Amino acid sequence: MVAFKKTMMIAATAGMAFAATADARDLRIASGAPPAHPSNGFLYKPFAEYLPEESNGSLGTIELGTEVVGLGQMKDALQTGLVDVGNLLPLYFPAELPNFALAGELSLSGRDAHAMGAALTEYTVNCEMCQQELSDFGIVYLGSGSSDQYALLTRTPVSTADDVAGLRLRSGGAPYARWAEHFGATPVSVSVLDTFEAMSQGTIDGSMASIGDLLAFRLIELVEHVTLIPLGTYFSTSNMTVAQPTWASLSEEDRAAMARAANKANADMTQRWGYDFPQIAREQALEAGITIEEAAPEFVEAATQFAVDDRVAAAEISAERFDMDDAAERVEEFVRLIEKWEAISEELDHDKDAITQRVWDEVWSKVDFSTYGS
Question: Can you identify the CATH homologous superfamily of domain 19-146+235-282+359-366?
Fold first, then answer.
């Protein structure tokens, strides 16, 4: 009898475990980026590990590769339900996401990767107009990340403004286009996924991008010179974008679990994209014979001043293009948040785990997940 009872208890326990596993819900997730890019291995793969832990097994994931959905198709994939959680780049859709577009217009202000990701996260979560436009778009926002400071990746040496004049440079957005035009270059709108082909065919002479693109997009085979100059960071991202129907179907507890998992993964990606990956790329670039050098001091000074002056242009453009009467005030608020998080990042010695916790304390812990994203 004792043996029978013991057998029944084991069977019951196994049955409960099976039921819990069977009840777990797998969400379809997609980074939209190639395997070498930080948003793949250091954003979505960690998220896939964190989510079951944070949800106590309630939520799992199924990862979809770029053969199913790439960055260019992410909007449609989220809005049609093909993807539950995807990596959306808002600058691809400025007319539909003007508040994100405004933040993206300030890309040249970026210096510290962790600070920029945190600043945009706090700004977006607490901005009523931002939340409304995201809702109208059919998505829910769960944080941002940032690259390192962009550099000039070219085939010809660049040291002064005169060296830039006449070059055709791949631009990832309007602020970079303004920068190029200001210094006499021609900005060319090319998807980051097509940079290698455009450069190999001579359509462009180089790219304004993270040095990590040398590895992520094989540019190490084409680039001969890297010029370090203040070009801001790419932080206008919605790393963990949830399809609204998916979000609406989740319990409050599972929504909070997703936010915790996303907050950790966002910091992981920023650490990789903004710090670790650039260092790896730098080392491999030098081994490949690529020249890496600082721009001439007068060029650095001119670029730094242009980034400050461009904030006015960003406000004016948003006010005119999107009929945003308070654009100047929004720019001022965002710059304040950049300064706040730069100070925090410095205080925490740019420590990833410490910044992850601070973002949770300062932003996500204050969110009511019963209504957020509704």
Answer: Bacterial extracellular solute-binding protein, family 7 (3.40.190.170)
Q: What is the pLDDT of residues 68-103, one digit of tens each?
A: 999 889 999 999 999 999 999 887 788 889 888 888
Q: Provide the β-strand partners of residue 53.
A: none
pTM, full prediction: 0.88
Q: Which residue type, as a one-letter code, is found at position 79? A: Q
- Cβ burial of 360 (10 Å; 0-12, 13-18, 19+) is middle
pLDDT per position as a tens digit, 5-64: 333 333 333 333 333 444 789 999 999 987 877 787 899 999 999 999 999 999 999 999
**Pairing mode, strands 291-294 and 225-233:** parallel
Q: Which residues partner with 292 through β-bridges?
A: 226
Look-up of token digits 């304040």:
336
Q: Are strands 149-154 and 206-209 parallel, antiparallel or unpaired?
A: antiparallel
Domain with CATH 3.40.190.170 in the chain: 19-146+235-282+359-366
SS3 109: helix
Please identify which residue in the block is written with the tokens 């990042």: 345
- Which superfamily does CATH assign the domain made up of 149-233+284-305 to? Periplasmic binding protein-like II (3.40.190.10)
